[in-house]
């Protein structure tokens, strides 16, 4: 029993971490194929032992909501669906009942609430109990009705998706230098969970209703089909479905299987539910699954091919990720020749070797993955040196999985984040340099310090030949770099990436020192600490940065490339006697504490509640119906966003 329990704990750790990365960070640690295999093993062990551990994904639902959006508890818990890959199991499951068979769309599940005929709330599924409030973003869904005829309270569930055609159009619109989005599901999830609903609108997100939770004092004759008719009548685009019985369900599944090739919405299977609402409810539910619905997942199209080699790809985090390169095969209508192996643990489990025969598939018909290694020669050697810097590598265990790391803090590829900040909008504002492009340039040795970006013309031919680049991309990039030479001192100071120096603090420093960078570089800790909005921590960060001769030299070389605008010094704003309240999510300040420190260092005060004494309420969502916004409006307290705060006081 101890061995079983140990194995169960190991499986729970792997599965929970994989789910966290997939749902909370839109990253895949293991393939869907491997996840299902490990999940089934865990379920079998739980059934065999009669033990279900508290953290088991077989009783936990979904993922934990991320921190940057308001959270709200669902009125009714959203359970996962039981699933099968066996067609006949659906026929046996429906029995003598009739049911609704529909697409299982692959996007982000959303719960909508309408009051008095108007959309009042949209919440993501989250962990099934608590989700993220995304009402403003839902209002930008392409096909969602903002008002409906029915005036009573309506609560419904559906899937936010981005169609394949829209996804391809969005990727095609990106500059050649920009990294392309990986798949519609991840893009949709990121688009819906945005602070800026303008981004959501630009991503062409659509909504398909798949179930009604509540319609106040409305009767549906105990029929789910009538509920779907009602939703359609209210203006919702409902998930395409067909009424089936045990006599025709297999034929209808064949129809879906043929239709998927032309269907424009990403799907990962089908959903079958009883039409008889009362019958379905009478069956109850387990702690994880409702018994009135079941999901069917398509069997993956699997092809056999030969492994050519493993490519080790360093990343800015220090991880060196294995990528399988194999003889090209046709999968789901396209040619594939590469698949991520994720980490060292997966590599070892597959026992890969050059020349091995492997089977590959596309997870959700999109992402290439290795299913099995038929040869298992286990001859791949894990590199002992980093392919970028040549430093010694090490194997570390993270979240139950072994990963290969480059521990060298000076490895060029780890500079990607600092270079990405340098070229960002609030810094030097260089278009055409995504993190992926920077990573390639650094890996090839074109860029070692910031000044090198202004001499990329030395590598013209190599850049044009670089993957994802071309003549037009090169020309546009060089033009953008040349335009960035004319800039301001606050932009340069922020671009250097000094710890805790954001755009706001950079402006405060420049104003205090009358736009004299030499004075900033020579200032002592006491002088810096007395600057409003700075304090001892930031002062020390400035001292630490400029005390290094090498960094001073790099700054000097950068300044030789720039033409910094001469700005007239002006009086520094004071917030004495002003009282601020901060609410909602922040976009340009790292968190509320950072904004509070800026206000307090300029002489202002920050409180938690809006009163008649409040000078300003700071909220990026100035039109929301939050309690603080309502109170501010009642008391006629001005509501301003971050940008307005900066323009007035920084």
Structural description of this entry:
The protein is α+β, with helices and mostly antiparallel strands and 650 residues long. The chain contains 24 helices and 24 strands. Helix 12 crosses helix 13 (435-443). The protein is globular and about 85 Å long. Mean pLDDT is 84; it is low at 61-66.
The overall pLDDT, averaged over residues, is 84
CATH class call of the largest domain = Alpha Beta
The CATH homologous superfamily name of the largest domain equals DNA ligase/mRNA capping enzyme
Radius of gyration: 28 Å
How many strands, which pairing sense, and closed or not: the largest β-sheet?
A: 5 strands, mixed
- Strand percentage lies at 15-25%
Number of domains: 6
Overall number of strands: 24
Key phrases:
650 residues, Helix Hairpins, D-amino Acid Aminotransferase, Chain A, domain 1, 5-stranded mixed sheet, 5-stranded antiparallel sheet, 24 helices, 21% strand
Summed up:
The protein is α+β, with helices and mostly antiparallel strands and about 650 residues long. It is built from 24 helices and 24 strands.
